[in-house]
C-alpha cells in the first residue's frame, strides 16, 4: 500500500520534510525505497547548509543542526551480540536486524567496522553531506584510513575534508574537526602524520599529553580535558606562542586533573597584564556565542593580543586575530576595576 505522503504535492511535501528532525528523516527513509528516494532528492535540491555530520568509530552517527547543543543521534551500528531479546520490536533492513528503541534506528552486524561504515555511507548519501567530525576511541584508528580514502578529493592534505558550512563568521570557514577519546600519544603522532593538523581538536582523558604534544598540535581550536600539564608547561607554551608558535591558534581550553595546578603565577618575561573584561566570541558553530571573563592579557611579538582566564580547574585562552579569520566578535564589553 503506498504511503499517503507520496501523493502529496511537491510544495507541501517540501514543507513537511523541512519540519522533520534528522533522526526522523533517517527513520522514515528506512520504510520504503520510494520514500528514501524522495527524501534524498529533497536534500539534494535543498541541502541543509548548517548541518554537520559526525561519525563515531564505535558505530554512532549524529548531526549538529544549529549549535553544539543541538546534536541529534540519527543512526547507530552495533554488534549482533547486543541485539535485544524478542521482547523488543525489531525490523530488518537490507537483511540486517534493527531496533528503534532510542528514537533512532540501530542496526546490528557481525562485523561492527563494516556496519559503522555502512550506516555512515547511508546517512551521508541520504543528506548529501560529507563527514565533518570524527570521534574515536583507542580501537578506532581504522577510521582515519577509511575517511582518508573515502574523501580523498576533499582532503587536500588537511585531513578530514573541507566543509564550507562550519562558519566562524559570514565568509570564513573551518574544515576539519577531530575528537579523540582515551587515545595514546603514539596515536596522536599518527594523526598528524596521516591527516595533517585538524582545525578543531578535542582531547578527552588526556593524562598522557605533554608540552611537546601541545605545541605540535597546530590547530585553530584545541580542547584538552583531564590533563596533567603543570603551570611551568603553560608558561613555556605562552612563551612559545609569543614568539610566533601555533600561529593558527584562536582558542585553547585546558582542563586539569588537579585543580590546584593553576595559581596565576606567570614568568615576568611573558609580560602578562592583569585585566577585568568580558568579550564575546564563537567557539564552534555559527550560532554558538560565548563569553570569556578575562583575568589576564598577553601580547604576541606582532601585536596580536590574547585573553586568558582561570576558572575552577580550566585554563582558557582566546586569541584576537587582527584579520578576524579565526573568531568572530559579535560584541565587546569592557569593565573597569
TrEMBL record:
Residues 11-43 form the F-box domain. Pfam families: F-box, FBA_2. It comes from Caenorhabditis nigoni. Residues 204-254 form the Sdz-33 F-box domain. It comes from the Eukaryota. This is F-box domain-containing protein.
Amino acid at each position: 500500500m503506498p504511503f499517503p505522503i507520496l501523493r502529496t504535492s511537491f510544495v507541501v511535501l517540501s514543507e513537511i520534510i523541512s519540519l522533520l528532525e534528522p533522526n526522523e528523516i533517517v527513520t522514515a527513509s528506512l520504510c520504503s525505497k520510494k520514500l528514501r528516494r524522495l527524501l534524498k532528492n529533497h536534500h539534494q535540491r535543498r541541502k541543509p547548509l548548517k548541518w554537520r555530520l559526525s561519525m563515531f568509530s564505535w558505530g554512532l552517527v549524529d548531526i549538529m543542526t544549529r549549535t553544539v547543543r543541538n546534536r541529534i543521534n540519527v543512526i547507530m551500528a552495533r554488534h549482533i551480540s547486543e541485539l535485544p531479546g524478542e521482547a523488543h520490536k525489531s525490523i530488518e533492513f537490507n537483511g540486517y536486524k534493527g531496533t528503534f528503541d532510542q528514537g533512532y534506528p540501530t542496526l546490528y552486524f557481525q562485523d561492527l567496522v563494516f556496519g559503522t561504515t555502512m550506516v555512515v555511507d547511508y546517512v551521508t548519501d541520504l543528506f548529501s553531506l560529507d563527514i565533518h567530525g570524527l570521534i574515536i576511541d583507542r580501537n578506532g584508528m581504522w577510521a582515519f584510513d577509511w575517511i582518508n580514502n573515502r574523501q580523498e578529493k576533499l582532503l587536500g592534505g588537511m585531513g578530514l575534508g573541507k566543509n564550507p558550512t562550519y562558519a566562524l563568521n559570514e565568509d570564513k570557514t573551518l574544515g576539519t574537526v577531530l575528537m579523540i577519546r582515551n587515545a595514546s600519544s603514539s596515536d596522536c603522532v599518527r594523526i598528524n602524520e596521516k591527516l595533517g593538523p585538524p582545525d578543531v581538536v578535542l582531547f578527552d582523558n588526556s593524562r598522557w599529553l605533554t608540552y611537546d604534544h601541545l605545541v605540535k598540535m597546530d590547530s585553530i581550536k584545541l580542547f584538552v580535558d583531564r590533563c596533567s600539564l603543570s603551570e611551568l608547561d603553560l608558561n613555556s607554551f605562552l612563551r612559545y606562542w609569543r614568539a610566533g608558535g601555533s600561529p593558527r591558534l584562536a582558542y585553547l581550553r585546558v582542563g586539569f586533573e588537579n585543580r590546584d595546578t593553576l595559581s596565576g603565577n606567570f614568568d615576568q618575561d611573558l609580560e602578562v597584564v592583569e585585566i577585568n573584561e568580558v568579550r564575546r566570541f564563537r567557539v564552534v558553530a555559527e550560532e554558538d556565542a560565548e563569553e570569556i571573563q578575562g583575568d589576564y592579557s598577553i601580547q604576541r611579538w606582532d601585536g596580536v593580543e590574547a585573553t586568558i582566564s582561570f576558572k575552577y580547574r580550566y585554563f582558557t585562552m582566546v586569541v584576537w586575530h587582527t584579520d578576524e579569520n579565526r573568531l568572530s566578535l559579535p560584541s565587546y564589553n569592557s569593565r573597569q576595576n
